[in-house]
Amino acid sequence: xxxxxxxxxxxxxxxxxxxxxxxxxxxxxxxxxxxxxxxxxxxxxxxxxxxxxxxxxxxxxxxxxxxxxxxxxxxxxxxxxxxxxxxxxxxxxxxxxxxxxxxxxxxxxxxxxxxxxxxxxxxxxxxxxxxxxxxxxxxxxxxxxxxxxxxxxxxxxxxxxxxxxxxxxxxxxxxxxxxxxxxxxxxxxxxxxxxxxxxxxxxxxxxxxxxxxxxxxxxxxxxxxxxxxxxxxxxxxxxxxxxxxxxxxxxxxxxxxxxxxxxxxxxxxxxxxxxxxxxxxxxxxxxxxxxxxxxxxxxxxxxxxxxxxxxxxxxxxxxxxxxxxxxxxxxxxxxxxxxxxxxxxxxxxxxxxxxxxxxxxxxxxxxxxxxxxxxx
Length: 376
Fold this sequence. Notes:
The protein is an all-alpha fold. It has helices at residues 3-15, 19-22, 24-47, 50-68, 73-88, 92-99, 106-114, 116-135, 137-156, 173-181, 186-218, 222-250, 252-272, 276-290, 293-304, 310-339, 343-375.
């Protein structure tokens, strides 16, 4: 799902389109990831995680092959919709499935399940950049499609086992206590979490989607941008694992609020420093700060909602986060086209991030109040 960020400058030059138009394939990845997460989550709830993983593998491979054979930008964008649908099977549904297997260390378990796509984001960009430079973006995408097919499908076989009572709800007092501490009605909480997901990911997408192009515009070259993206996602691995430990101790809302505040701080630094070394450092900090935000939503869902609803509710929230990524990636490109620089795009990201911080702070305050009333 990260390949289009590396290929974006090359595809833009090849098709002679604007930066906003060249960002459309990433937007389609996010749309596919968003809608696919809900569909794959429902399939996982009904048939187990192996079925959506197998379908996802076929979709990813088909999408990459179709991209390699595309002769226009709209064909590339359509193929990336398929890639997004395929990638969704190994994110939200996997986190929801693993959450049923753990109780005491659920936070770290969910974080480890979520860290896979950041490992990919760390390893793939330099490899893709090398092969795009040597063989072209079309040949590279065909190679990735074949590689995913022959490596992912055998791994699905190891995921066939299901836990018999993974949908069993907590009984009696535990369920009553969870409902008593809920900061708002289930519908209100669901809507607020979806809005928060959109806002945090519009902010998150600015550096992730455009760092390669940003470095090219500054004269550092797209290869340096690919290295920064790799570093960003590499430090995101550390962040996601650490956030699991933190969530096990302070809860999902506090962990998400902490990550969102720190993400805003990193975005603020991008406004003031654009030297090569500075961008490496800030990109590392950005990855370290934001990596645990999205997995925290899975912890919040398990803290406040019934396990029977985990797959569907988490799928809807992740759909919102990915729509935010899609919106943010396109919006940042549009702002660049209108202003000729990314400075206004960074300000835009900060504004959306503040909305997320406000929602999480309100939920935390409400949760504390409801918890005190429940204890009384």
